[in-house]
Design a protein that fits this description.
150 residues, 3 helices, NTF2-like_dom_sf, SnoaL-like domain-containing protein
């Protein structure tokens, strides 16, 4: 967990580091199953960065404050994900001891319909533990303006 754990410019996470990220996602998944959006918001650092794409083939980015996150995720999660069958394979890539990019490949089954997705989260280590700060997933950008350079 210390900066001196970085060798040749690359951080190699310990079993404890990996377990910490796995525990964070276990907590997140349990909260999502209950639809506990306010508690999930407590696991984030705001403003929260989002990157997605919009119809037409361009990327889009936004920042959400806590209020917007709670509003949108309450609409998305409804009463929670407990009625869905979800399998997730998460691959954490530690950039430093305090920054980890986690790619998730998930399959969700709702009423017999399967949907596969891939998304990523940037977690940052805080004094209170891991928190997500950036969410990246395609398909959320309906109605969002396309990103522009400069």
């Amino acid at each position: 967990m210390q900066q001196d754990d970085v060798r040749n410019g690359l951080f190699t996470p310990s079993a404890e580091d990996l377990a910490g990220v796995e525990a964070w996602f276990a907590e997140y998944d349990a909260l999502a199953a209950r639809g506990a959006v306010e508690e999930i918001a407590g696991l984030a650092v705001f403003p929260l960065n989002l990157a997605t794409d919009v119809p037409g083939g361009f990327g889009a980015v936004r920042q959400w404050d806590r209020e917007e996150f709670v509003r949108v995720m309450t609409e998305v999660m409804g009463g929670g994900t407990a009625g869905t069958e979800t399998t997730s394979v998460r691959t954490p890539r530690f950039l430093t001891p305090n920054l980890v990019l986690v790619e998730t490949e998930a399959t969700v089954t709702v009423e017999g319909e399967r949907q596969s997705m891939r998304y990523a989260d940037l977690l940052v280590r805080t004094a209170d533990g891991w928190a997500f700060q950036t969410m990246v997933q395609g398909g959320w950008g309906h109605g969002w303006p396309a990103a522009t350079r400069g």
